[in-house]
Amino acid sequence: MEKENVVLIFGGRSAEHDISIITGLQALKNVDDTKYNFYPIYISKDGEMLFGKKLFKIESYSNFSKKGLRRVSFRPADDRIYLSRGKGLYPSFKVSCAVLCLHGLNGEDGTIQGLLELSKIPYTSSNVLSSAICMDKIIMKDVLRANNILTPKSCYIKSADYYLNEEEILSDVTKNLELFSNSCFVKPANLGSSIGISKCSNLNQLMEAVDVAFSYDQRIIIEQAVEDAVEVNCAVLGDADYQIVSDLEYPKSWSSFLSFDEKYISRKEEKLGKKRLSKKLEEEVKKNARETFKIFDCSGVVRIDFLVLPNEEKIYLNELNSIPGSLAFYLFKNQNLDFKRLLNKLIEIGKRKFLEKNNNKYSFESRALANFGSGIKTNKYTK
User: Fold this and answer.
1) 121: closest CA among 362, 355, 360?
2) In the chain, what is the straight-line distance between the N-terminal and C-terminal CA atoms, in Å?
3) Residue 272 and residue 275: Cα distance in Å, rounded?
4) Which residues, 6+ apart, have CB-to-CB distance to 30 below 8 Å?
5) Which tens digits make up the pLDDT trace of 123-161?
């Protein structure tokens, strides 16, 4: 049987660019080459899509050079990739599926998904709307509350409003959130991996944190800290029809919150939290993860992060990560899913979702154009 061509897209114009490279290289080392031809597409920090053999090697990304690489492009209604030759772009091979290993903006926010939708190429993540909602912490919190899912109390501010009326906005924020009876977190609305996030316990810290967050986004969210909570992560693999729920991960922080370095650079097994929830609460977390996955119409693999107060049996949903680092493969060990099997599942899900969507009707025959051409008014607004 002829192998299918699959592209793996990573990098991107995002603060999480380096982590995306790691996820992409991990995936490339675990491909099922009995089924697929895998081709890496690297999106540079300036947003250029590049293609070439040296992208398989991690040393290529230190002092990165475009030498030996070709530019790549996608076109609407065309499931082939286009490669540069001289000053032009020419069609190459047909793509059966795109494996997305992008994190943050231009990867998890629905933009690359929209590009692939226009090109009629299946992909391995949540759809455009679901990705955009999961990425935007402000909208995500609104959807959680609308579905009666417990999440930390929060508010948001825009940079234009804040710098015009700083004193009044800070006063409103501290009153509305009852800040500094507990601490609070300040986060850019559309960033992950703890970048730009600060924990505050007084007004001066809050003002500094707001400035930091606004350097990454024009909208920021301020939320109350859930003190003494147990951090728990749970991944879900699947789509609307079926879901596989992973084991739970208990990340441990030795600082005020799990920083970027703790998540990715210094992550070791001994730094995972030893505090565990009861079996009852663990099952409740898994149930909440599955239900949230369905409510947000997710597909592919999504990691959902919780904060749990065991004594009160309260489970706060903190955020959803629609393309988690390392594709959260390490959480599925007890489900008999190593990285290779996980990738195969993701490709199968992406292709099935694509076929289901293509079975929808996208045209409707009407007399509107014929009537318009003959001068007949089709409605009161037509002149």
Assistant:
1) 355
2) 59
3) 9
4) 329, 338, 339, 340, 343
5) 999 999 999 999 999 999 999 999 999 999 999 999 999
One-letter amino acid of 106: N
Of 209, 224, 239, the one marking the end of a domain is 224
Best CA proximity match to 301, nearest among 259, 348, 258, 336: 348
User: 23-40: string of b/e by CB count within 10 Å (b at 16+)?
Assistant: bbbbbbebbeeebbebbb
Is the domain of 49 the same as that of 112? yes
Going from the C-alpha of 353 to that of each of 294, 299, 357, the distances in angstroms are 14, 9, 6
pLDDT tens-digit map of 176-197: 767 656 789 999 998 766 788 9
Question: What range does the domain containing 261 cover?
Answer: 230-358
Q: Is residue 371 part of a domain?
A: no
Tokens of 126: 């949540």
Task: Take residue 183 and report the two structure tokens written for it.
Answer: 């601490």
Note whether 120 and 212 are same-domain residues. Answer: no
Q: What is the CATH classification number for the domain harbouring 321?
A: 3.30.470.20
Do residues 214 and 246 share a domain? no
pLDDT digits (tens, 9 = 90+) for 314-373: 999 999 999 999 999 999 999 999 999 999 999 999 999 999 988 876 667 777 777 776
pTM beyond 0.70, yes or no: yes
Statement to judge: residues 102 and 184 lie in one domain: no
Asked whether residue 159 falls in the same domain as residue 274, the answer is no
